[in-house]
Amino acid sequence: MLCTPDCLFDKKESYCATFKQQDTCMKAGELLAILFFILLPFLSFSQPAGGSFGDPVVNIDFGSAATGPNFTASTGYQRIYTDCPNDGNYIIATRSPNCFSSAWHILPEDHTPGDTNGYMMVVNSDPVAGKDFYRQTVTGLCPNTTYEFAAWIININKKDNLYPNVTFTIETPNGTVLKNINTGDIEKTATPEWKKYSVTFTTQPGQPDIVLAIKNNAPGGSIPGNDLALDDITFRPAGPTLNPVITGTGSNSTHLCEGDTRSLEFTTADVSTFYTSPRYQWQQSDDGINWMDIPGNSATHPAYTASFVNVPAGAYYYRMLVAETANFNSPSCRVASDPISVTVDPPPVIAAETLPVCEGSTLQLNLEATGFFKWTGPNGWTSTEQKPAIPHIQLNQAGTYSVTINNGLCTYNRTTKVTVNPLPHADAGQDIMLCEGESTTLNASGGIMYQWSPATGLSDPNTQNPVAKPLTTTTYTVLVTSASGCQASAKVTLKVSPKIEVNAGDDQITVQKHPVYLKGTVNRNSDYYIVWEPSDFLDNPHSLTPIATPLHDITYTLKAFTSDGCPMNEDQVFIRVYQSLEIPNTFSPNGDGINDTWNIAALNTYPHSVLTVYNRYGNVAFRSVGYPDAWDGKNGGKDLPAGIYYYTIDLKERNEKTISGWVVILR
Question: Whose CA, among 55, 122, 457, 594, lies 20 to 30 Å from 165?
């Protein structure tokens, strides 16, 4: 058995077909002469490693919906529309399902880059080895053109000894094999990884149509060792590595400044060793995806000079197509280079071209750029910062601010106009004195919007003239906003005079000509004055504690006034004045109408007093409570004999001692 030519000549990673035992291969030197003549039409000795590729002739990524090609007619494999295909079947799915008692890995996504929720082909290969599961005819190929046939594959088996083994085949429509390559056993990895497998070949004259096929070589059946996932099948022109650069830079990218006028030359490596008669076409794109030929630039020389005149900002992409001259007009025969990118940078942006700020605030100049900066402004202001700040800006600092930016490639000059708006003349009005329970209207001015704080006691804190009824002295602050949006504040204090509370003290009792002290109180220490009414018998009617010496019962009213003019308050106290007793020591109850009763003046003003009269033997001769009627010298309706009698008077008043003495009845 012989190794395939790829083992001998491909500079890419290769697989020795089904012949993994290297000792079964003849030495390369022994075979070289034979193989050179037998396989010469099918080999691409000058195809370099890596290389560049053209737009795909075949590009199967199985879409982003549950559609995709159907290979049943060409292969016999049946596509099913449920999970877990049996042997000889396949599905188009967004993931590899966990089938056959978790024998398969679950693949979270397909291979296609950027294809969110994209689909892949999951194959449970036929138990019979050598049966194609992908087969497709390609037409319209160019002669003497190298193509790459590739696909991305994953071993989805979990067991270590289960390896898919796949062969890529290129053949003529009548079945003649032009080239094939075998992957060998596709071993599993700890985490399933997509791996690319490919084969290249060069068409000969008279081979416009070929058939691409991928088949399984591993056994199946009860041991599912040939199960795999497949994605991104491509067939595309292949050629030498084309790495165009910008002349003088050695790079495939550069930056220009907006408004620049200049020319850039693009060149690439010589490909004459790969093509007999190469032809070139440069293309341009705005997005690096959709390309258009540059008119008049199909040439036999790979260089191109791009002219930029007053160029606007944006991204510009260029690439070169190359093919044999005879094949150039067919897109399926051309190889494309990597793109050259030219980025035209826009001028730096100042956050706002016109910056209104309020007097006293911080002006923040925001510049989106990199490089070196030189700012200038009114009154000789300068700065080298990217985003300088000017705190406590004043009205005379309004004007034009300019900056020069140098990023090493471009120099830009930018300006911005700064308007400094004056603060509003906020006014909250004059301080106000209120009596407890009163309200007043606040009066703010100076702007178009107002906000008061605190809101306690206000009818509406968001109006210019709220009604205020605070319970205690409160300082209100109003935030005034002008039409330009600037804000200033002012304060007003509402001094609340608490209601004056007065107490004239408890009612008192006294005896005529005996002084008493009135005990008035108020609920404040200052800012008030008082008066007792009436002022009769008082030593000082404006003292809270005057001395009173009333001659009779009297009610005093204590009136208290505040110095701020708030309503006065008053309270009363009653003084009970008992009269002084005048006790005569004789009376003559003889019926002549003169001095017939023992008249004790004022005793009847002591309603609870007890008068007791005793004879000389200590017997009670008379007893009276309150003394409503004067004693007439009788006891039980009978006249008592003349003589001396003794008495006691208990006034039943606190601090008053019992009065005693004698009285004579005359007949």
Answer: 55
**Token output for 508:** 């008192």
What percentage of the chain reaches a pLDDT higher than 70? 91
Q: Which of 232, 219, 229, 215 is nearest to 90 (CA)?
A: 229
CATH top class, domain 349-421: mainly beta
Which residue, 195, 117, 107, is CA-closest to 158? 107
pTM, full prediction: 0.55
384 phi and psi, to 5 degrees?
Answer: -115, 10
Q: Put the strands of the sheet holding 487-497 in their side by side order.
A: 432-435, 487-497, 474-481, 449-453
Across 32-77, where does the E strand assignment appear?
A: 52-53, 58-60
Strand partners, 157: 104
Q: Which CATH number fits domain 586-665: 2.60.40, 1.20.58, 1.20.120, 2.60.98?
A: 2.60.40
pLDDT at 141 exceeding the cut of 80: yes
H-helix or E-strand spanning residue 230: strand 227-239
Rounded distance, CA 276 to CA 398, Å? 71
State how far the Cα of 435 lies from the Cα of 499, in Å rounded to an integer: 7
pLDDT confidence of residue 461? 97
Q: CA-based angle 52:54:58, to the nearest 5?
A: 125
- 207: closest CA among 181, 182, 232, 179? 179
Decide: residue 296, CB within 10 A, 0-12 exposed, 13-18 middle, 19+ buried. exposed
Residue 106 near residue 98 (C-beta atoms within 8 A)? yes
pLDDT at 304: 92
The domain segmentation of the chain, as residue ranges, is 52-239, 245-345, 349-421, 432-497, 502-578, 586-665
**Distances in Å between the alpha carbon of 183 and those of 9, 20, 163, 253?**
16, 10, 11, 37
Question: Which pLDDT score, from 0 to 100, does residue 224 have?
Answer: 54
Residue type (1 letter), 452: W
pLDDT digits (tens, 9 = 90+) for 387-424: 999 999 999 999 999 999 998 888 889 999 999 999 99
